[in-house]
Specification:
Blueprint lengths: L5 E4 L8 H11 L3 E4 L6 H15 L6 E4 L2 H7 L3 E4 L6 H8 L4 E6 L8 H5 L3 E4 L16 H11 L6 E4 L7 H6 L4 E4 L1 H4 L4 H20 L1
Parallel strand pairs: 1-2, 1-8, 2-3, 3-4, 4-5, 5-6, 6-7, 7-8
Helix pairs in contact: 1-2, 1-9, 2-3
The structure holds the ligand Cc1ncc(COP(=O)(O)OP(=O)(O)O)c(N)n1, the ligand Cc1nc(C(=O)O)sc1CCOP(=O)(O)O and magnesium ion (MG).
The site of the ligand Cc1ncc(COP(=O)(O)OP(=O)(O)O)c(N)n1 has 20 residues, from strand 1, strand 4, strand 5 and strand 7.
Function: Condenses 4-methyl-5-(beta-hydroxyethyl)thiazole monophosphate (THZ-P) and 2-methyl-4-amino-5-hydroxymethyl pyrimidine pyrophosphate (HMP-PP) to form thiamine monophosphate (TMP).
Pathway: Cofactor biosynthesis; thiamine diphosphate biosynthesis; thiamine phosphate from 4-amino-2-methyl-5-diphosphomethylpyrimidine and 4-methyl-5-(2-phosphoethyl)-thiazole: step 1/1
GO cellular component, one term: cytoplasm
């Protein structure tokens, strides 16, 4: 079951063990995790997946793998997140099967015209909302207006997560603009207390979703 409200994408943990950060973040309310280690070899990525899987225990929070659908398949992970330099969602679907969770980065409205890959995706990611030091090779920031435009143009049943420069100060704005969840790296991985950071983000998102629906 895909719950996109608070999506932790792994990143720099300031020297702390990643499994500890992810475990704490899940305790704090993260609903989805993506293992993202751009320089890791497949065997290292697979070993890291196993560590994270132990860290989240029986919470059933899905762990997706960034980029590498083969590692996603061999580890038995929940699925994969892909972007413009990766295999296409439809190809990932063929590889991973109907039950896998597949996410796709969306940079502009024109991409929504690729209906085969939109249909193959379980969620789309508005990327990036704002410029971020965590990933500098992004396309131009969409801003809140871009998030709103994507939401209006997308199939209504497909969840939209937003990524890039999101923290507790702006998360509610992103939800108000139409995102169904936020994806963050530094707001949790760099936080002094990742569990507390996740808890604050989760209640901010939940409150904003409740306001939007009322
Ligand atoms: C949730 C989420 N959204 C966007 C991205 C970025 O994916 P991509 O464009 O493929 O860039 P890399 O992460 O591979 O550098 C993401 N990973 N997760
Ligand atoms: C992994 C990633 N993808 C992005 C995109 O725009 O596609 S931005 C990003 C990093 C987001 O980090 P932070 O939460 O620290 O800003
Ligand atoms: Mg990628």
């Amino acid at each position: 079951m895909l719950d996109p409200r608070l999506y932790l994408v792994t990143g720099d943990t300031r020297g702390r063990p990643l499994a500890d950060i992810v475990g704490a973040a899940v305790d704090g309310g993260v609903t989805l995790v993506q293992l993202r280690e751009k320089d890791a070899r497949p065997d290292t990525l697979a070993a890291r997946y196993d560590e994270l899987s132990i860290a989240i225990g029986d919470t059933r929070v899905p762990i997706l793998v960034n980029d590498d659908a083969d590692v996603a398949r061999t580890t038995g992970s929940a699925g994969v997140h892909v972007g413009p330099d990766d295999i296409a969602p439809a190809e990932a679907r063929d590889l991973l099967g109907a039950d896998a969770l597949i996410g796709w980065s969306i940079h502009d409205l024109a991409q929504l015209g690729d209906t085969e890959n939109v249909r193959a995706s379980d969620y789309l990611a508005a990327s990036p909302v704002w410029a971020t030091a965590t990933k500098t090779d992004t396309t131009a920031p969409l801003g809140l207006a871009g998030v709103a435009a994507l939401r209006r143009s997308m199939p209504p049943h497909v969840p939209l997560v937003a990524i890039g420069g999101i923290d507790a100060t702006n998360a509610a704005d992103v939800i108000a603009a139409g995102a169904d969840g936020i994806a963050v790296v530094s707001a949790i991985c760099s936080a002094a207390d990742p569990e507390a950071a996740a808890c604050e983000l989760r209640s901010t998102v939940d409150d904003a979703l409740a306001r939007r629906e009322s």
